[in-house]
Amino acid sequence: MGTRENVSRYDVIVVGGGNAAFCAALAAEENGARVLVLERAPEEEAGGNSRFTAGGFRCVYGGVEDLRKIIPDLSPQEIENTDFGTYTEEQFFDDMARVTQHRADPDLVEVLVRRSLDTMVWLRSKGIGFVPIYGRQAFKTPSGKFRFWGGLTVEARGGGPGLVAALTAAARARGIVVRYGHRATALLMQNGRIAGVRVRAGGAEEEVPARAVVLAAGGFEANSEWRTRYLGPGWELAKVRGTRFNTGDGIRMALEAGAMPWGHWSGCHAVGWERNAPDFGDLAVGDQFQKHSYPFGILVNARGERFVDEGADFRNYTYAKYGRIILEQPGQFAWQVFDAKVKHLLRDEYRIRQVTKASASTLEELALKLTDVDPEGFLKTVRAFNGAVRRDVPFDPTIKDGRGTVGIAPPKSNWANPLDTPPFEAYAVTCGITFTFGGVKVTTSAQVVDSDGGPMPGLYAAGEMVGGLFYFNYPGGTGLMSGAVFGRLAGASAAAEART
Ligand SMILES: Cc1cc2nc3c(=O)[nH]c(=O)nc-3n(C[C@H](O)[C@H](O)[C@H](O)COP(=O)(O)OP(=O)(O)OC[C@H]3O[C@@H](n4cnc5c(N)ncnc54)[C@H](O)[C@@H]3O)c2cc1C
Q1: Of 50, 208, 486, which is best to mutate to test ligand 1, by the most ligand atoms within 8 angstroms of its C-beta?
Q2: 286 and 166, same structural domain?
Q3: Range of the domain at 350
Q4: Strand ranges for 11-158 from DSSP E
Q5: Single pTM value for the model
Q6: Is 4's pLDDT higher than 50?
Q7: What is the pLDDT of residues 296-308, one digit of tens each?
Q8: Which residue, judged by its Cα, is nearest atom 12 of ligand 1?
Q9: Are both 142 and 28 inside the same structural domain?
């Protein structure tokens, strides 16, 4: 055991180096605390999953006036040429309730929804820049205007890397100490309260005392043994989309100190992800291994069969649950197939070099190029699908157009087009896990609750490791928003407790 630091040095220790951790650190500092951030990753790999994101934040806004509070430099041309719509508190509540099958903790959801806009304005005040997500969340309508369609309108300038860089700069400018390569291993307890953390760095261990601790150390998605244990057999085979450092340390430390496990422990966010992607995320590629334009094509498995309603809803409301369904297919893979009619709708991530892609000018030729797929099964599926499309309903990607299929299972409920226009393109995907849903229980002030139901003095948590918000599925852009809202609350609450 190494040295014990000068007892009076820090009021609040924040464990983690992503969005939730920095929001906690900034809020604690703003409330008068001396703050230390401990990030397990070395600086080159720091920033957690937050750094791998596109930086999309799902927040309530009543129209352009609210967006201008977050993006003051929105130009008159942008306003003129864009239908931003609105995203009301009611819509956010409805989306959270619907996609989580009404399991999400209503008290936590209430905080998330009602504090979302105000927290975005707060982030802006700390120097975090935002821009509209034209590329991925808006389509051009026939009138030439861009229309946002999925309640997700704002992203951090520079995406995830820009977000983490701006948060880190904001923290440093305010005197917050950030130590990289420092892995918290246990919580210190004194007289029934959390009194600091044990840290390992460069092979040495030390104890760092503090009056309160905020845990924002992510979920257990990068721990293949925990994945298999809690998500189920087969999950060790998933690719990890983001950081290799989220192995459940924060959750383990909290549980060892007596915290209550909470939320959907066998659930996670998982998507269709490049079949030959590396086992963990690659910061040079970021989120571009994902393949999220499946609502405009079909998905087939090794038997050449469709297995999911690709057009059940907008991408933002299905993508996070479809990774699991791909994992359940034989060989844990699928091919997404498109024809030339929709090529212009494919997202930017389809145009990177690191894709497993097949192209052909006939379906028969394509069938032979779909590695590991039964060609006859595939051709049979396409014939049945093409014959089932409701051609009397017009195709419109900006709304749920109801252009579905009739008489096939599974159906495709929207955006169904026959695959009949060459060249055809197909992309191979497997399951990429984003983050796990299970974690610890917190109060609406982000204080961790013990297994008897009481608040744990000196212990707060935020971000992925909070349980109770997401079950089965997740509305795109909510992870960063939840990390910011609960991180900010955790930091402010921890600073207030440290003052007492
Ligand atoms: C590819 C990808 C794209 C995504 N896109 C979006 C998006 O556009 N919008 C959105 O809302 N969400 C997105 N998400 C989800 C989002 O990344 C998370 O919901 C969010 O970043 C979680 O923030 P966090 O601070 O809780 O965790 P993280 O950002 O993962 O931070 C956890 C931190 O804890 C550190 N840590 C772990 N253990 C220890 C320890 N023992 N001691 C010290 N530090 C430790 C890690 O190194 C890491 O820095 C995406 C995720 C991925 C992987």
Answers
A1: 50
A2: no
A3: 270-432
A4: 12-15, 35-38, 56-57, 82-83, 130-132, 138-140, 146-148, 154-156
A5: 0.96
A6: no
A7: 999 999 999 999 9
A8: 479
A9: yes
